[in-house]
Design goal:
Number of strands: 8
Distance between the termini: 40 Å
Number of helices: 8
Order of helices and strands: HEEEEEHHHEEEHHHH
Shape: elongated
Radius of gyration: 21 Å
Helix content: 25-40%
Strand content: 15-25%
């Protein structure tokens, strides 16, 4: 995810998007209201400035130039941190600008910074958003779910963290249209049977389980769908907690299928760290 632009490089040009509307609409500058935002990723633009990938509630994922943010006297240095909620104000720009300019940012509260394994989990969520969300495609419910999962990760309770991660993955997949209805067999649209085992497959959705693939009984899938439809994040998290680790296996396979690439970087780093720790553990 690191940028290749060296010091003094020019920022990406903010030309019109190929699918933008009429020129008269593109040319109109629009005032920018403060946005609720998190920093997903940042990389150097010049010796003193950064390019940020922001996840905002109002406008989705945005590329933003933070001029002077690396200077020692910049007030932005203590604000542009991962996992910390902020209010970001952007300079006037057209709606379809590829890169916006950060005018001001203020800390808006947030959970303590995750540490240890929880820090990897936080960066895993950021990588999912970077890889799966299109730019300038707002998802307010997903933003709220992200804001609610961060305090759970900071607590560093493994069981709660795993349930919170699965709940976030479900919300993310549904928000971007990649999650089938969990209460019915995808290919036949028939309701799942309460006690029969079903698997979540990338190519077939909810399907009768075969062999030793990760599976859950039908009533669990129905409960998960009900929590997605009618419950809040807490209710969904509670349902996920009762469906581990089968839910984790199914969601991991589905996510990897839609990512269409090798393992996520954060997941690979976590796997490498576990191998290193195992190699240093005393043999009995």
């Amino acid at each position: 995810m690191s940028g290749s632009d060296g010091p003094g490089a020019e920022p990406p040009q903010a030309g019109p998007h190929p699918l933008a509307g009429p020129a008269s609409a593109r040319g109109r500058g629009v005032p920018s209201r403060p946005l609720q935002a998190y920093v997903l990723h940042q990389y150097d633009w010049s010796e003193s400035s950064l390019i940020l990938d922001l996840f905002t509630r109002e406008r989705g994922r945005l590329a933003v130039a933070a001029k002077g943010a690396k200077r020692s006297n910049s007030q932005l240095r203590g604000v542009l941190l991962p996992f910390q909620r902020m209010q970001a104000s952007l300079a006037r720009s057209s709606d379809d600008a590829e890169v916006h300019t950060l005018r001001a940012a203020e800390w808006a509260g947030g959970a303590p910074m995750p540490t240890g394994g929880a820090l990897f989990s936080g960066f895993y969520l950021n990588e999912l958003l970077l890889r799966l969300l299109a730019r300038q495609d707002p998802h307010a419910a997903l933003f709220d779910a992200y804001a609610q999962v961060l305090p759970v990760l900071a607590v560093a309770d493994e069981a709660q963290s795993q349930a919170a991660l699965r709940a976030f993955e479900l919300i993310l997949l549904r928000e971007i249209g990649l999650l089938p209805d969990l209460s019915s067999v995808t290919l036949t649209l028939q309701a799942v049977r309460a006690d029969a085992p079903y698997a979540l497959r990338p190519d077939a959705g909810i399907a009768p389980a075969a062999g030793d693939e990760p599976a859950l009984p039908g009533f669990r899938w129905v409960s998960l769908q009900a929590a997605l439809d009618h419950g809040g994040v807490d209710a969904l998290r509670a349902e996920c907690a009762m469906s581990l680790p089968a839910l984790r296996g199914g969601l991991r396979t589905l996510l990897q299928y839609h990512l269409g690439s090798p393992m996520l970087r954060t997941r690979q780093v976590m796997a490498d760290v576990r191998k290193l720790m195992d190699s240093k553990a005393p043999h009995r």
